[in-house]
Amino acid sequence: MPKDYAHRSKPKPRRSPATKGRASKKPTPPAKKPPYLAMLIAAALISAFGYLLMQLDGSAERQPAEVVAEPKPKPQPKPVTRPKQNDDPLPPKPQEDWQYIDELENKEVVVDLPPPEESQGPYQMQCASFRSQSQADAMKAKIAFQGKEAMVRRSEGKSGTWYKVVMGPYERKRQAEKDRHVLARIGIRTCKIWKWQG
């Protein structure tokens, strides 16, 4: 019978017993080397720190203890020696002699007063003179609003008839002047003070 070489499977290669054991085991990774450099740096730091501590302790022991100086006592002032006074007593206190006190008690003060105003009156005060009676009555009413009393007098003269607004009579001239100031505040500044004409 003829052999079919085309569909024939290839024979598996044979392995030697030495390679057979190696193929079954997985390759082990190489062992890590310990970090020598990091260990050296750590050791150097630790030794430097220890050396620094030793230097600090040694310098503290070497420094001398501070000497606190005691404050010097303040010199006390010398007592003031007063000169010895004589045993003579003090002179008597002088007595004050004020003369004006006695003089003022018995002194009379004289005040010069002006002599009382003699009444030469009576006086009257004429504030206006109009041709028409209505104007005179209007001023009389204006004066009455100030609480003062006036009258209207009719007089006949060479120039005709006049209506005079008159206030009074006043016993003293000062009373008439007081009323004149009151009327001046409301604009009536034409008042004249004369002797009373009845």
TrEMBL record:
Keyword Transmembrane helix belongs to the record: yes
Compositionally biased residues, Basic residues: 8-25
Spans traversing the lipid bilayer: 36-54
Keyword terms: Membrane, Transmembrane, Transmembrane helix
Signal peptide (UniProt feature, chain positions): none
Highest taxon of the lineage: Bacteria
Region feature Disordered, mapped onto this chain: 1-34, 60-97
Biased composition (Basic and acidic residues): 60-73
Domain SPOR, first and last residues per copy: 117-196
Protein name per the record: SPOR domain-containing protein
Protein species of origin: Corallincola platygyrae
